[in-house]
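Lab meeting, action items carried over

1. Structure of the two-component assembly. Owner: GW. Status: complete.
Input record:
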Amino acid sequence: MQTPAPFDYERATSVEGAIEALERLGAEARIIAGGHSLLPMMKLRLASPEHLIDINDLAELSYIREEEGMIKVGALTRHVDLLKSDLLARHFPLFRDAEEVIADPVVRNRGTIGGSLCQADAAEDLSAVCSAAKAFVVIRGRDGERVVSMEDFHVGPYTTAVGAGELLTEVRLPLFPGAGSAHEKVERRAGDWAIAAASAAVWLESGTISQVGIALSAVGLTTIHLTRAEELLRGKPPSEELFAQAREIAAEDCAPMADGRGPVDYKRHLAGVLTQRALRRATERALS
Amino acid sequence: MNITITLNGEQVTHDVEPRRLLVHYIREDAGLTGTHWGCDTSNCGACVVLMDGQPVKSCTVLAAMAEGHEIRTVESLEQDGRLDPVQEGFYEKHALQCGFCTPGMLMTARGLLDENPNPTEHEIRTAISGGICRCTGYKNIVAAIRWAAEQQETAHGHR
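Predicted assembly:
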C-alpha cells in the first residue's frame, strides 16, 4: 500500500490566505490543487511536505475569459474545463488537441493548469502548449504580482520561477491576429505520457510568419523551447521546405533519453516529425 | 482531524489522519468495500467514485479534500431493491468476468450518463479510457453502457 508520509493539512479560503500560509509554514509547505502529480510523488516518498495547503476552495482561481486583448486562465482551472472551452479552442486550438490526450477523462476532472505548469515535468503537455502559445504566467506573493514568460518560468527539471511564499494564479495568452496552433503527441496507449509531443503556434501577417512558438515534451530534462527553429521561421512565408528544416532542427535540438518508451534515435525522429506536423496544422488553421 | 462527508446521501463524520486516502477512508473507515483499491497509481480506475457528481480516482484524493463534498460509491446505485440501469446493463450484456474493475466502471458509466444521457460508442470508449479491465471485456462494457442509455431513454423519468 502506498501512503504519503504524515503531514498537516489546512484549507485556504483566499489567495492571500494561501500566500500567508506558505510564508508562515515555510519551505516544507506545499500547495495542493488537483493533487494528481503531488499525491503520487508523496505516495512514492519522492516528496514529503510537512504541510499541505489545499486551494481547491478558491473558486476565484477557476476561469477562462477574454480580457484586455488576451485569454486569461485561472490557475485552478481543471483539464476538463480547458478541454471544453470553446473560447480557448477558437483562439488556441492546441489546448484542445492536448487536452484530448492528457491522461484520461477521470484524471482530467481533477488536474489543474496551475498544477501542471508548477510540476514542470518535461513529459507534461501543457508546459509545451503554453510555451508555444507564448504565454505568460502571473505569480503572486505578499508584495504583489509579477508576470513571467514561459522561457523564464522554466528554470530546470521540476523547477520553476515560483519562489518561496509565492503562488501561480493565472496564465495569460496574448491575442494577435492571424493565429493558428496545434499539438501533436504520440503515446504508447490511451492516457499514457508522451513518447514525444510537439506544440506549435504561428501568427501570419500578410503571408509571412510574424511570430512563432515551438516547444517539445518528453524529449529532454525540461520542456524544450525550439528557439533556433523559431528564429529560422520568423519573417518568412510558411512552406513545406521551411517546416522540413524545422523538423531537422527539432531532431537535433532535443535531448531524449532511452527508456521503455523508445531509444534515442527513434525519439529524435519522432520529435522532428511531430514538429513538422504541428507546424503544418497550425499554419492550416491560421489560414482557414 | 475530523471530516464530515456526505457519503451516499448521508452525512458522516470520522476522525482521520490528513494523509488518509479517500479510497481507504471509504473502505476502512466507512466500511464500504464495494469501491476497489487497485493500482494505487491513478491508472486502473477500479477506485472511481463520484465527487459532487464527477468521476474521480479515490486513490488520488485525500479524504480531507472530500470534507464538505458529496461522495457516491457503487453501493448507492441500487435503490430499494432496484438496480441502476448501468448495473442491469452489465448483467444483461455480460460486462464483467472477474468483477474487479466493475465498481469503477459502473461509477464512471453513471457519471457519463448523468452528464450525457445518449453517448455514442466513441464517447463511451473515451469516458472509460481511465479504467483497465484485465479480462479484456471492453466490448461488452461498452455495450452495457449503451444498453443502459437506451433503457433510461425508454424508461423516461426513471432516475
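2. GW to write a short summary for the group page. Key points so far: The interface with chain A takes residues 1, 17-19, 21, 24, 40-43, 45, 48, 54-57, 60-62, 64-65, 108, 126-127, 129-131 of chain B (CB under 8 Å). The mean pLDDT of chain B is 95.
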